[in-house]
Write a structure and sequence with these properties.
CATH topology of the largest domain: Rossmann fold
CATH architecture of the largest domain: 3-Layer(aba) Sandwich
Distance between the termini: 43 Å
Number of domains: 3
Order of helices and strands: EEEHEEEHHHEHEHEEHHH
Helix content: 25-40%
Number of strands: 10
Low-confidence stretches: none
Length: 260
């Protein structure tokens, strides 16, 4: 049996250009193991969001190869969940219906309505917002809307989860609470995940490895990939005060100074 059978997400020579030929993302090569979670940081314009959009299938004209366990990422059996910075919720639908529609579109909704509703309630409960099921997005705070967006992404049971600076617009207290909630749910229901952030601390807290993109875009994007297993393996509440966290912060800032 080929080793590609469980190779996870494999990005080979991925390149994205605008219509005028300007490079939006130089050639990228990256392998993310199945059920792994890597965080991505980089300056504005380095291609972080472009990378996620390409993997999500939103940039059909991109070059290169995107594989998941040896098959095209965009194969109908490979579900991809995307959590955008702006939440991406339908304002005219309730919280429950936002999740129900996503499950229906992806074919992950149970045939039985009571079973489907129970699954939705379970995911909302995991995010601490079970009481908001019948509310509309515009009546919710930013933190509550983002919890709904994350619940929706988990509810479709994706093979790949892409998160584009999901907590950047939130205050520090809400952001830290959602980091913990997200990580707890990912540990319970692991998906192969790429998490884009502009926050160094968040990158260290949530990533098994940390990918640093260089400034600007050229023919080839040279990624700096840092192992973060020492911090990731700790209890979440112990990470920030650890020596390993402090040392990793220094390493990242040195790379940023050199590449940005």
């Amino acid at each position: 049996m080929s080793s590609l059978g469980n190779s996870g997400l494999c990005i080979r020579d991925l390149q994205v250009e605008y219509k005028g030929g300007q490079v939006a993302l130089g050639e990228v090569n990256l392998t993310l193991p199945e059920h792994g979670i890597y965080t991505i940081i980089g300056p504005s314009g380095s291609g972080k969001s472009t990378l996620l959009r390409a993997v999500a299938g939103l940039l059909p004209g991109c070059r290169g190869e995107l594989l998941y366990n040896g098959r095209s990422v965009h194969d109908k059996e490979t579900l991809v969940g995307l959590v955008p910075q702006n939440y991406g919720l339908l304002p005219w639908k309730t919280v429950r219906d936002n999740i129900r529609i996503a499950m229906k579109i992806t074919g992950t909704a149970a045939v039985d309505k009571s079973e489907r509703d129970a699954r939705i309630t379970s995911w909302l409960g995991a995010m601490g917002i079970a009481g908001l099921a019948d509310r509309y997005p515009l009546s919710l705070s930013g933190g509550q809307q983002q919890r709904v967006a994350i619940a929706r992404a988990f509810a479709i049971l994706p093979k790949i989860m892409l998160l584009d600076e999901p907590f950047s617009a939130l205050d520090a207290v809400t952001r830290e609470a959602l980091q913990q909630i997200f990580l707890n749910n990912w540990l319970a229901h692991p998906a192969t995940a790429l998490f884009v952030t502009h926050d160094v601390d968040e990158a260290i807290l949530l990533g098994q490895k940390i990918i640093i993109l260089p400034a600007g875009t050229g023919k080839r994007t040279e990624l700096e990939v840092l192992d973060n297993a020492a911090v990731f393996g700790m209890k979440h509440e112990a990470k920030r005060d650890s020596n390993e966290f402090f040392e990793q912060t220094k390493v990242i800032r040195k790379v940023m100074q050199a590449k940005w």
